[in-house]
Specification:
The chain is of the alpha/beta class and 344 residues long. Helices cover 50% and strands 11% of the residues. It has helices at 19-30, 42-51, 73-77, 92-99, 124-132, 148-151, 166-176, 189-211, 216-236, 247-258, 263-272, 277-284, 289-303, 309-319, 324-332, 339-343; strands at 11-15, 34-38, 67-70, 82-85, 108-111, 139-143, 157-162, 181-186. Helix 8 runs parallel beside helix 10 (247-258) and helix 14 packs antiparallel against helix 15 (324-332). It starts with 10 loop residues before the first strand and ends with a helix. Sn-glycerol 3-phosphate binds at residues 114, 144, 146, 199, 252, 262-264.
């Protein structure tokens, strides 16, 4: 009697084991993948495997079956049909460089990091392309309004995956799509990455505004003018303006600027209350991408000759000891201009 065919195990690797990486690893595991979550920290890997919980980043939430942690990149990537890079922007190049020798040619590469490389000002797809030896269109970016704290609890979430190669985008869409995690495709990689990065700067500003006791009027103006800055820089870098009206643009901007889960909002709020930047970053205990991105966007605005007044004022607050209140007063005292012309 012939033996029944065994179903092939689908494997995925997720690098690294922060809150967002863990949440997305859980999505993949619930979708039937055997997932290895990579971390450099042996103690963290043991804790995840023994307790089935990432206690440091997502306490109190059990991880699904099929998700395990490892400190071995070779083990994580062996046989993986999908590799998800969720390292902070400052560590992405080094993680990619270490992963490259173990990455199979057919493995689909996705990243979900929102930021620029600080010294080169490069987007994450460019960094991965350089270190993995792959064309940029072979890399997919996942972005959109999504907090790890809600995704891990299976609360309804909708995101976008972007790639110039629609087949690659659709492969990523199929991998992540579920009843509580809806995924759209988008060919505009530049727009999706720029929007995901710059919205963190505006979220810092929203935290500052709230910390100073300003109201909803101020926050609405900040989000709207912040979206204009995202659009100006994105257009200069070759993005499709329509992207900024979608999930990766206004969707991610709203959720990051208004949610208690937002690290960038919390950091801005603490700064407004007089906490020095170094102390803010220490107390957060996690990477606040908006701080690094403010420096990068400030330089990108000069490179592309784009006006980004909110970014410029936040740069002064973060790196030149300018007071948050003075920054707001400067923004309100700018010369009069026409709204629609100033968006373009």
């Amino acid at each position: 009697m012939a033996k029944a065919k065994t179903e092939q195990v689908r494997r995925a690797a997720v690098l690294v084991a922060g809150s967002w990486g863990t949440a997305l690893a859980s999505v993949l595991a619930r979708n039937g993948y055997e997932v290895l979550l990579w971390t450099r920290n042996t103690e963290q890997a043991s804790s995840i495997n023994e307790s089935r919980m990432n206690a440091k980043y997502l306490p109190g939430v059990m991880l699904p079956e099929g998700l395990k942690a490892t400190v071995s990149l070779q083990e994580a990537l062996s046989g993986a049909e999908l590799a998800l890079f969720v390292a902070p922007s400052g560590a992405m190049r080094e993680v990619a460089k270490q992963a490259a020798p173990f990455l199979a040619a057919q493995t689909l590469c996705v990243h979900a990091t929102k930021g620029f490389e600080a010294d080169t000002l490069k987007r994450m797809t460019t960094v991965l392309s350089e270190e993995l030896g792959r064309a940029p269109e072979q890399i997919v970016v996942l972005s959109g309004p999504s907090h790890a704290e809600e995704v891990i609890k299976r609360q309804p979430t909708t995101v976008v995956v972007a790639s110039a190669d629609m087949k690659a985008a659709e492969q990523a869409q199929d991998a992540f799509m579920s009843s509580d995690f809806r995924v759209y495709t988008n060919p505009d990689v530049v727009g999706v990455e720029v929007a995901g990065a710059i919205k963190n700067i505006i979220a810092l500003g929203a935290g500052l505004s709230d910390g100073l006791g300003f109201g909803d009027n101020a926050k609405a103006a900040l989000l709207t003018r912040g979206l204009a800055e995202i659009g100006r820089l994105g257009a200069a870098m070759g993005a499709n303006p329509l992207t900024f009206a979608g999930l990766a643009g206004v969707g991610d901007l709203v959720v990051t600027c208004t949610s208690k889960h937002s690290r960038n909002w919390r950091a801005g709020h603490m700064l407004a209350n007089g906490t020095p930047l170094g102390e803010v970053l220490t107390k957060m205990g996690m990477v606040v991408e908006g701080v690094r991105t403010t420096r990068a966007a400030f330089e990108l605005a000069k490179r592309y000759e784009v006006e980004m007044p909110i970014t410029a004022q936040l740069y002064k607050v973060l790196f030149e000891e300018f007071s948050p209140k003075a920054a707001v007063e400067h923004l309100m005292g700018r010369l009069k201009t026409h709204e629609i012309e100033s968006i373009g």
